[in-house]
Amino acid sequence: MKITFLSFSLSLFIITFSAKTQSQTTKIQVVNHSEKEDDPAKDFINPPESAKPGVLWMWMGCNISKEGITKDLEALKDEGFNRTTMFSLADITTPWAGVIGKSPTPEIISWTEPWWQLVRFAAQESKRLGMDFGMYNGAGYEASGGVWITPELSMQELCWSLDTVTGNRSLHILLKRPTVDLRGHTPYPIYDGNSDSVDIPEIEARKTYYKDVAVLALPANGIVATDSVINLTGKMLPDGTLDWDAPSGEWIIYRFGHTTSGTLIQPAQWKATGLECDKMSEEAVTFHMDHIISEIQKHLGDLIGTGFTHVHFDSYEAGTPDWTPKMREEFLKRRGYDLLAYLPTFAGRTMGNKQDSLKFKNDFQATIEDLYRDVYFKIISEKLKAANLTFLCEPYGGPWRQDEIMPLIPRVMTEFWTHGGRYSPYELESTVAALRKSGQNIIEAEAFTGDPADSKWDETPAWLKPIGDEAFCAGVNRLVLHRFVEQAFDDRYKPGATMGRWGTHFDRTQTWWKPARAMVLYWQRCQALLQWGTIAKADSGDFVAADIHGNINLKYIHRHSGNTDIYFVANVSRNAGDANCTFKVSGRQPEIWDPVTAAMRYLPDFKYENGNISIPLNFDTAQSFFIVFRKNVIINVKSNTRNFPSWKELTKLNGEWVVQFDPAWGGPAKPVIFPSLKDWTTSEDPGIKYFSGTAVYKKTVSVSADAIKNKQLLYLDLGTVKHIARVYINNEDLGVIWTAPWKVKIPAGLLRQGNNYLKIEVTNVWANRLIGDEQQPSDCEFVPGYLGGGYSLKEFPDWFLKKQPRPAKGRYCFTTWNYFTRESPLVSSGLMGPVRIMEEVN
């Protein structure tokens, strides 16, 4: 049966709230189906604190200031964020730890007193603003360690030497101490303060620290039975001398020992760079956690639980160690046999037979996984809980079984990247599945992590939207943006400090930072509903999209509580189209809630069949909706009503526009007349061609009485916008337009007969101004990054340090990482239109 309707006999209540976004102040109709507190409309209209996103707050080396901290946090609060996790990194990431010379504040070194004073100030400011604040468990973002970790407590490496001897005689031999590469297992080059170079540094402790494990003799050739291994450990003297009456035959004597792996935390200031702790040693992990907690308590004690709430552990990149001092006894306890006779498998020997050797290797790996669970994660969890601090972790990338460690972590975070402008998850599906299994509702994600191919000061809210939407459909319901950099400098230096090559560039110095509050509000509405209820059980036919027109890609997620079902359906493509969508719901009225505009309305055109409901849905580029089922089908209806309107053009706003660019960023000093709308990059005027920031378009529009007579559903369609716009008509703010459809509703009665005044503030990205600066002589020295993708500031220039006017008069931007050259292509910018007044018809 196909049911259509337009008028309703049921009682409605009206909720009015201000939504200065893609719609203006909006009257929202909400079906009054229940007075229950769990009505999702309440959270959709007023998203709770849990629905607000957070940021990973990067403190870059010693370039931190109290003024910058306050401005950062206040900007985040105003934008709609309520949580930060601070990382104390190197001056620059290139992509590894790099240094920028001549810092204005060289005394600020991570985990030293000047740094702790700033951390305390950040905690105090966070408390004042009602924001959640925490930080990483050491310097850098990888993994757990610091200058306080001694070689004995660091990650360990099994090493060995061998001597081949002929038996049937008494031997007196000095066994060689195993040698290792002094550069250790640090995975990436870093700035080495000892050599003033970028390299994998030599680790002094790999020269000096060594402990013996065992001395074993076994036949020199072939597969060796484990009972033929001769344990000579007790016969070797401390200086390595061995006296042994060797049986006849050829023998290999192995001297096994362990030393520090030399793995360093990454990427931190050189003076804050230390060894990774041994993740399988109770002594080492306890020491590390006791140290960081005692430092937190010493400096932040009265703020714990209010101004400072959590300690973070990022995705694991420290490698897999192959030894710990108690490995032999732990292996025996957990696997039931002694590993001693199997140690030669590490040197490439086959012990017992191939199956025996393979079993040992699997058992050894299982023991490592057990110890990471029972030592590393368990101690972290217990220590932080006892200190009233929340354990926040990205629990993947390391040698453990994820499903076994998840119950130890109260706040789990996953991640996704923006590779190729597409949603690129990293261990996201498995993490989300494990969280669902454990019953955790909030699923956080390090969001929109980007590299230079995709994030070079050219990202826009519209570009980001489908990437985030696909993460929502995968189960994420709280975004933690990667990344937001602490801006310690004067606000005239923009874009300012960066995380080196890494994006995405969510910073208060971003051109579109303030208007992008509309995007943050969109995320809040989405996250409010995606945290509501529970994930519905995955079922065949839960959602099916058929009869698709246009090259669109629809994803969905379904949440449920009581008699209410909520589907988030997203077109994650950058195309427009439509589809007939079937939902596994029966006997209830469909509604469509738009998280961009906050509009909520009934869908009149649908059909029930075989316990499902089919609804024709239209999607603009990267558009998404919530389809909500929460009440019985309305009976009193009118027929022939469609779910989406058609549009009739009333007038096209041709002709001249007056455009004012900001001269502070190189724009013309006086307003410019555009005979027609155009891309700024096509201009002959370099102040327009290379402009970045906000330009104000103004136009007087004459409207006839006939054009607005009896017209209640009018919209202003902006056409093509690069990249975000705020619209005013007759001095009334109609809000921000940041994504498709690029329309804004004109309130009834706002347009008047005669002249109407239109103002549109259009903001583009930083890329063009940065490229424009490259046309000028340089007044800063940059050096190439180590994987390409841009150039790192070598040192702060004297004019910057002395706060003098810069020598290059045609340069306007200052940043610590430059992606561009003078030949880099410009990014299409401005209002291209056509701008039209449209009437909604049905």
TrEMBL record:
Originating organism: Ginsengibacter hankyongi
InterPro entries: Galactose-bd-like_sf
Keyword list, A-Z: Hydrolase, Signal
Gene3D superfamilies: Galactose-binding domain-like (2.60.120.260)
One Pfam short name: Glyco_hydro_106
GO terms for MF: hydrolase activity
SUPFAM superfamilies per UniProt: Galactose-binding domain-like (SSF49785)
Record protein name field: Alpha-L-rhamnosidase
Signal peptide (UniProt feature, chain positions): 1-21
